[in-house]
Design goal:
The complex is a heterodimer of chains A (about 70) and B (about 425). Chain A is about 15% helix and about 15% strand. With about 70 residues, chain A is of the alpha+beta class. The chains are: A alpha+beta (about 70), B alpha+beta (about 425).
């Protein structure tokens, strides 16, 4: 079992977490084009490299609520 | 024909099977590029790329084709999957597409003149819950509607087909029934790559191993060539068939895709006498298992839950898998796992592939095969060859086009492989 140091819940099994993917800036839905919005919703930087983190949003296992640490 | 005086230093013994047509004994086309210009360049010498090369030559008479493989042929996901071939999908488009692949597979050993050890076993997708049973009935009806032999069976029929299976799964998750899929089969996966390579090579296609594409030359929105570690090639048609390397290749032509890479792991046990005739899959237990022609149990589980571009394997995987497999077959407790490995699965948000043309003229994509690409090898090769030859995707793969994401026309393929069900990627 792999363990993860969670900033909120301490050391927990990695299976209790869901990886949410790279952090992405949301374009303004009122001003962006349909294509830009589709890109935000679907497209990802799939190539290897540093992934951007958007603070520490912790998505916990089902049954627990989502918590933000800042 | 290729310049056969150039011998591959990296000749690998297994490829001797493919080089019988060449008097030099050299595997395929040696170590330097023979020509400066090709009618089409295929990046990726896995099953999909080699099948596309084969059908380009056979169906369309296009033989001035180079297949560029960074490593050795069939060494990527083609040689890393758990070799299952099936067509029991959920949408009529999905069932028809994979059924066409199964039909090609059935005659492929003869067509390629190489024994692929294609073995029809029957395939049980076990259901441990009422909701799973409901999905099995749905899939069975869609399958029957398009003429594929799938139906729902109860525990008695499962026990009859596999008496060794503990129907209660050690009391953990009793089996209520299963979707039985008669055409479900296994095949020697690397032989599929070898067979396509051998026949493509015979028709004049040139296959270059240890040949890495470093950039793709695009001028005014059109492909004009590729730069490799062996030199520059002029071409106006390039197919990317590189599975886990797709995001890197797409970056070279500045095309965005939704593909992310997660590792998928698998393992085999020591060989045993044949006892498991069928292919068994359990969604709830995240297990699929079959017995190879060598007697090993070939087992897979679910995707690793994070992005990583690596083929390392982990104790975590084998620990989880063996715990579930011994729930199903308690007597396997003393059997040893002898090998484990991983492949880089290229995943899409709707669990369907990305096939066809792109915004860049002459750049074609065959990707997003995630955990289900092996079974599609023949049909993807055939349809991509047609796409390249006519610069137009055939109707069968139109719903898999890359632009579906911008059009918000994702496919409805929910009968995703068991290996992908744990993937709660927040999309």
């Amino acid at each position: 079992m792999k363990l993860l140091q969670c900033p909120v819940n301490g050391i927990r099994p990695v299976s209790e977490f869901t990886y949410g993917g790279e952090y992405r800036e949301m374009p303004n839905p009122d001003t962006c084009t349909d294509k830009e919005w589709a890109g935000y919703v679907h497209y990802r930087h799939g190539a290897p490299g540093l992934k951007k983190s958007g603070g520490t949003t912790v998505r916990a296992a089902p049954g627990l609520s989502q918590k933000e640490t800042r | 024909m290729a310049n056969i005086s150039m011998r591959g230093k990296n000749a690998i013994k297994t490829f001797e099977i493919c080089s019988q047509s060449r008097t030099s004994g050299s595997p395929f086309s040696g170590i330097v590029l023979n020509r400066k210009t090709y009618d089409a360049v295929i990046i990726g010498g896995g099953g999909h790329g080699l099948a596309a090369a084969y059908y380009l030559a056979k169906d369309h008479g296009i033989t001035n084709v180079a297949v560029l493989e960074k490593g050795y042929i069939g060494g990527g996901n083609t040689g890393r999957n758990t070799t299952i071939v099936r067509s029991n999908y959920l949408t009529p488009e999905g069932v028809n597409f994979y059924n066409a692949s199964v039909k090609l597979f059935e005659d492929l050993s003869e067509e390629l003149d190489l024994n692929l050890f294609y073995s029809n076993r029957g395939h049980f997708t076990l259901a441990h819950t009422d909701s799973a049973m409901r999905t099995m009935r749905w899939r069975a009806e869609v399958n029957k509607h398009v003429g594929v032999e799938s139906y729902v069976v109860g525990p008695d029929e499962i026990s009859k087909a596999c008496p060794q299976l503990d129907i209660s799964c050690s009391g953990q998750a009793p089996i209520l029934g299963a979707l039985y899929h008669a055409p479900g089969s296994v095949a020697r996966h690397d032989a599929v790559a070898w067979g396509y390579a051998k026949e493509a090579d015979r028709m004049g296609v040139e296959i270059f191993q240890s040949t890495e594409v470093t950039s793709i030359d695009v001028k005014s929105g059109k492909v004009v060539g590729v730069q490799t570690n062996k030199g520059y090639i002029s071409t106006n048609r390039v197919l990317s068939a590189v599975a886990g390397f797709t995001p890197r290749i797409c970056e070279m032509v500045d095309i965005e895709t939704p593909i992310v890479i997660h590792p998928l792991q698998a393992c085999v046990t020591e060989p045993m006498k044949p006892w498991l005739d069928t292919i068994l899959v359990s969604g709830s237990l995240h297990v699929y298992v079959s017995q190879s022609s060598r007697g090993e149990l070939v087992m897979g589980s679910s995707l690793d839950p994070y992005e990583i571009h690596s083929t390392r394997s982990s104790l975590d995987f084998v620990e989880g898998l063996t715990s579930h497999i011994t729930d199903m077959f308690p007597f396997l407790g003393n059997v040893k796992v002898v090998r484990q490995w991983a492949g880089m699965a290229d995943l899409t948000p709707d669990f369907a592939p990305i096939m066809g043309k792109t915004e860049v003229e002459g750049f074609y994509i065959d990707a997003g095969w995630g955990t289900w690409g092996f079974k599609a090898t023949p049909i993807s090769g055939k349809t991509m060859a047609e796409t390249i030859a006519r610069d137009m995707a055939p109707d069968m793969i139109k719903s898999f086009r890359l632009s579906r994401f911008e059009d918000y026309e994702l496919t409805g393929e929910k009968a995703q492989p068991r290996s992908a069900t744990n993937l709660g990627i927040a999309r």
